[in-house]
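Student: Hello, beginner here. Can you help me understand the protein record under this note? Any guidance would be welcome.
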Amino acid sequence: MSQRPNHFEMRPMTSPPLLSPSPYSSLLRLLLSRRRRPTPPALRCRLPFLTAAMSSSSSYSTRNHGSVVADADGLARKVAAIRAAGPAKLQVIADFDATLTRYWYDGSRGQSSHGLLRQGNEEYDAKREALFEHYHPIEICPDIPLPEKAKLMEEWWEKTHGLLIEGGLTYTAIRKSVVDASIAFRDGVVELFEFLEERDIPVLVFSAGLADIIEEVFRQKLHRSFKNIKIVSNRMVFNEEGRLVAFKGKTIHVLNKNEHALDMAAPVHDNFGDPNGSTDDYSLVKKRTNVLLLGDHIGDLGMSDGLKYENRIAVGFL
């Protein structure tokens, strides 16, 4: 759930983070360009793993300039196949927290869509924080079997959602939480969204966070919507007074982000309380057999499960 206490701080990296800043549109241009062109020096600095993919040399190191490529030759083949198929066959599936948003914010760990939320009720904020302190070590423990961990993650999410309902979360609290939050999109995200929208390439934002908060972040930080973006996340149901009364559909947590949740995809709503309609082009998305997958958690690899893709490039943000 990646909910962090307000006092949580870490020392910023001294080396550039993987694929940052502003790699996104350059990446898509490389994938969609049919003619091979020299890679500009500036791009080689920011995207060393793609420089390797464009090279016919097999001597490229799998570790270079802060990036890691497991199979440079395999990546090159995928890039070539995606280029040949063109934009009509491509879709982008992206996690939200720490993938589309910055990991670092003003020198400290940025907040997630769960972590930024303040209900306006200190008792319930404290109860959710206590859940984080109990379950987060379980989430990041490598020694717990995944089936056991998945059950505990679902338990954590259900308890948290219950506290949000019981504590009387409102539209107003969500808006204020986003205004006060330490959250921002990575450099290049707007450029990426515009690039994809111009080419009718769908983007599926797949998050174990809270859809309504993600949408409010879009509204406040980007000040516009994109017709090609759908969100798959935990969506709230509010009453006429703007108070949370339930959650819609199945619970999505960090270890079940897969095809079983794709029927919850919905456009970014312009306002709170807009109808929770589902996507009307899911069948068309399933026909797009080339996938660019972006994430920061091992569970994000499951976001493309159920899609019969031909080529998938998975990029992990460390």
User: Anything to note?
Assistant: Residues 146-166 form the longest helix (21 residues). The two ends are 17 Å apart (CA to CA). DSSP finds ten helices and eleven strands in the chain.
